[in-house]
């Protein structure tokens, strides 16, 4: 399926949209002041070791300490590889015997801080190049799982020979061949190996020179990662609306991605580049709960901290000959739409899809097969477990950075993220109870209620009798003052 990549650049923000058949499939946003940390290498300092959780908190100079689990320690990774070759389970060495408080440790961010959680770390360093991923502390030679199985062994042996030819001090280091390196020549792979080794040498040198909590290596910017990670054989054009960044991308591409340079185009149109495919409208839709389907059905997407739920509804779709066919066609369309929304919104973690109940088993299997087929296009690893006992489709999608909604939005200051607020009548009754509570503790001359206009209207109209009765009961006058700046749930009771 042919795709176009559109890049909208400004000094404060870079936005990248991947478009296929006229529809936005992926949206990547990077802000200058909020650049992601995944791939960054730090010289961390062990702040605390937690034997009960078999983990440690590492200070890498961020607001929150980062998290390192025993399974992500290099010694544990090496043991797993060694024992996997023998076909035996790897022995688990307790984390308290591997690290200690105050220790300087070379670590890499594998997950950005998300919500209240700090960054997730690994002490196994991996450096991504154009064609290869370098594992300097390992000797493992591997091939991407996306490359056909029958080609992997020949490619692995070829990569092994190249790594040994470029070995330093008798150590080859580990390499994994990326998908776009399948057809690369020995010369291209050799150049990538040299670049990655040079990068690792700079990191090691910096680790001996800089103090703990220092950044030693930063991953490529979003603009550069477009050429490294997003461009494929199906990419027709890469259009960017900044002449300055276009030249920088050309220079970077000529050095690391020569095949992508011919696809680069400087966009000079009068209309903003994102208007070409109504991308800003798609972004607005991706921040909403409801997603309309072409058939008339719709999805309801709800994102929580623990998981994301997607509910499928037929809506106004009544076009099929019978009810079963209507449900089947809606679910088939929804399978593709859900997969696209997961990519577009960058939703990760546990995802529960509630398709409309289907009575026929062949329909159920066809929808599940279509869902898996659509998810196979995802660059991020996904796993579908099938239908649960309740008829829900459970799946996971690897989460490495904030979702689009968390990146572009923040909780509503009025409802605090609940999605609803108390009614004016409910707030009115809260006020009446609070006045009674205050009257039992204090003896002011007068009570003054300051609240939103809607609440004051209820007190003056529908609840005026109860307000007068309360005033008589406590023996104090109660005055009212409307404050337009207050939200419906906010109020103050002033003792005069």
SSE blueprint and pairings:
Blueprint: E1 3-10, E2 13-20, E3 23-31, E4 41-50, E5 55-59, E6 66-69, H1 74-86, E7 104-111, E8 120-122, E9 127-128, E10 132-135, E11 141-143, H2 149-165, E12 174-177, H3 186-209, E13 214-217, H4 222-230, E14 235-240, H5 243-256, H6 258-261, E15 264-266, H7 279-286, E16 290-292, E17 298-303, E18 307-313, H8 323-345, E19 349-354, H9 361-375, E20 382-387, E21 393-397, H10 404-408, H11 424-441, E22 447-451, H12 453-460, H13 464-474, E23 478-482, E24 491-495
Parallel strand pairs: 1-14, 11-12, 14-15, 18-19, 22-23
Antiparallel strand pairs: 1-2, 2-3, 4-5, 4-7, 4-13, 5-6, 7-8, 9-10, 10-12, 16-17, 17-18, 19-21, 20-21, 22-24
Helix pairs in contact: 4-5, 8-9, 11-12
Task: Give the oligomeric state.
Answer: single chain
Model regions low in confidence, pLDDT < 50 over at least 5 residues: none
Largest sheet, described in full?
Answer: 6 strands, antiparallel
Q: Output the structural class.
A: alpha+beta
Distance between the termini: 72 Å
Key traits:
single chain; 496 residues; alpha+beta; Nucleotidyltransferase, domain 5; 4 domains; 6-stranded antiparallel sheet; 13 helices
Could you please describe the fold and organization of this structure?
The protein has 496 residues and is an alpha+beta fold. The protein has four domains: 3-34 and 221-279, Nucleotidyltransferase, domain 5 (2-Layer Sandwich), CATH 3.30.420; 125-214, Ribosomal Protein S5, domain 2, CATH 3.30.230; 289-408, no CATH class; 424-495, Ribonuclease E, catalytic domain (Hypothetical Protein Ychn, Chain: A, 3-Layer(aba) Sandwich), CATH 3.40.1260.20. 34% of the residues lie in helices and 26% in strands. The protein has 13 helices and 24 strands. The chain has helices at 74-86, 149-165, 186-209, 222-230, 243-256, 258-261, 279-286, 323-345, 361-375, 404-408, 424-441, 453-460, 464-474, and strands spanning 3-10, 13-20, 23-31, 41-50, 55-59, 66-69, 104-111, 120-122, 127-128, 132-135, 141-143, 174-177, 214-217, 235-240, 264-266, 290-292, 298-303, 307-313, 349-354, 382-387, 393-397, 447-451, 478-482, 491-495. Strands 4, 5, 6, 7, 8 and 13 form a six-stranded antiparallel sheet that branches. Strand 7 (104-111) and strand 8 (120-122) form a beta hairpin. Helix 4 (222-230) packs across helix 5 (243-256), helix 8 runs parallel beside helix 9 (361-375) and helix 11 (424-441) packs across helix 12. The radius of gyration is 29 Å and the shape is globular. The N and C termini lie far apart (72 Å).
